[in-house]
Design goal:
The chain contains three helices and six strands; from the N terminus they run H-E-H-E-E-E-E-E-H. A six-stranded antiparallel sheet has the order 1-6-5-4-3-2, sandwiched between helices. Helix 1 runs antiparallel to helix 3. By secondary structure, it is of the alpha+beta class. 22% of the residues are buried. It is 36% helix and 29% strand. A hairpin with an 8-residue loop joins strand 4 and strand 5. InterPro entries: PFN (IPR048278), PFN_sf (IPR036140). This is Profilin.
Length: 134
């Protein structure tokens, strides 16, 4: 895998869609399912990946950091979830999309409008990765 291509795509995309007030996503996780030696809490990541691999999306909840999520809709290569223990009035959610090599997790704050903007942002990155067979 050409990590320089992935990094350039990520940097260009993230600068437009992640992190600032009003951006579609409050944070994004791009996880390479075959990567070793990641610089994150391996237990947290492995539990999330295990949740996705078990494919019992409607029967279980999952955690990202301290937040617990419940899947609300399932589609061919992605699913949506809402945070069960949010501290924000409008709520929080997650969009999880799978490409051939990556899991993309887009976290957002708010309701349906925020979810729609986050979905578009995550889908754009997924499309760029897929066009390069990543």
């Amino acid at each position: 895998m050409d990590w320089s291509v992935v990094r350039r795509l990520w940097e260009k995309w993230a600068s437009n869609y992640v992190g600032s007030l009003g951006d579609p996503a409050s944070s994004i996780l791009l996880y390479n399912a075959e990567q070793e030696g990641i610089k994150a809490d391996p237990i947290e990541i492995s539990q999330f990946v295990s949740f996705v691999k078990r494919n019992k999306l409607q029967m279980e909840s999952f955690f990202i950091g301290p937040n617990q999520y419940l899947v609300t809709s399932i589609h061919e290569s992605w699913f949506c979830a809402r945070c069960l223990n949010t501290s924000t009035q409008a709520g929080e959610g997650a969009i999880v999309m799978q490409t051939s090599a990556f899991l993309l997790v887009g976290l957002y704050e708010g309701s349906i409008g925020s979810a729609s903007r986050a979905m578009v942002a995550v889908d754009q990155l997924s499309g760029q990765l897929s066009r390069r067979n990543l």
